[in-house]
Amino acid sequence: MNFTLKIMGTASAMPISDRNPSAQVLSVHGRLFLIDCGEGTQQQLRRHKLSFLKIEAVFLSHLHGDHVFGIFGLLSTMAMLGRTQELHIYAPRAFGDVLRFFLSAFGDGIAYEIIHHPLEMQAPEVVHTSRYVEVRAFPLRHKIECYGFRFDELVSKRRPANEPFRTRSYAYCSDTMPFPELAQWVKGVDVLYHESTYPAEMADKAAARFHSTSLQAAECARDAGVGRLLLGHYSSRVRDLSVYAREAQAVFPDTVAADDGDTFDF
To answer: How many domains, the chain?
Structure first.
């Protein structure tokens, strides 16, 4: 398929034996977009036979380790594989300092250009446009600066005007507590990924840590009128993913508790 999502990791801050930290790969007509890059992402890319060198851009939601610790090893491996194509990284402005330190200490063998595009918007903005996809970033509400991403497929200029074609869309909502504007910003997407760190009975803990419950994720999906909801970023305290799925499905029936290695074709 030419619009496919691969789930690399669904754990939250504490990785466990059968769940990796956050990472996903969206494939759009053969071009790969890496969304977050927690520790272990390289191994997951290998395991699922995804080419490191076909990654066109990286989107990092925020600078908590479970979302970024994997990026530095990946950058080095790309160099060892002979990457020459520039790599675009969309991440909060503070990532620039971290990237400069990494390159000063470990960047001698990195010959390709790494371009950091700082994120610092207060409302959705287009940050990346290529032949087949347009990407908007939007602010989330977490303990630190954090962003979500919306990917909207573009119609190829080579496609005949009279040939019917339905464009597809995907939104990624990383760590966030609920807030009213979010449903508008992801309105109508085919698939919404929304973090659901805690089940509903732990709503107080979710609020204190600026996270969401599975029930709150489902309410956002319902209000946004999306096609399907994917849950993830699960607490290490909850091992049975069906707990999350059941709660969300009571509000939004087309909900899947995503797991590491899952593939979704749009």
So the answer is: 1
Average pLDDT of the chain to the nearest whole number: 96
pLDDT tens digits for range 3-56: 999 999 999 998 789 999 999 999 999 999 999 999 999 999 999 999 999 999
CATH code: domain of residue 236: 3.60.15.10
Per residue in 89-100, pLDDT (tens digit) is: 999 999 999 999
Look up 66 and say whether it is catalytic: yes
- Going by the DSSP 8-state scheme, the letter that residue 240 receives in this structure is -
Which is catalytic among the residues 66, 175, 190, 260?
66
pLDDT in tens, 205-237: 999 999 999 999 999 999 999 999 999 999 999
Q: Rounded CA gap, 20 and 116, in Å?
A: 25
- Which pair of structure tokens corresponds to residue 26? 């969206």
| 138-170 tens-digit pLDDT | 999 999 999 999 999 998 766 666 667 789 999
> 259 is in which domain, residue-wise?
3-265
Closest CA to 191 of 161, 157, 152: 152
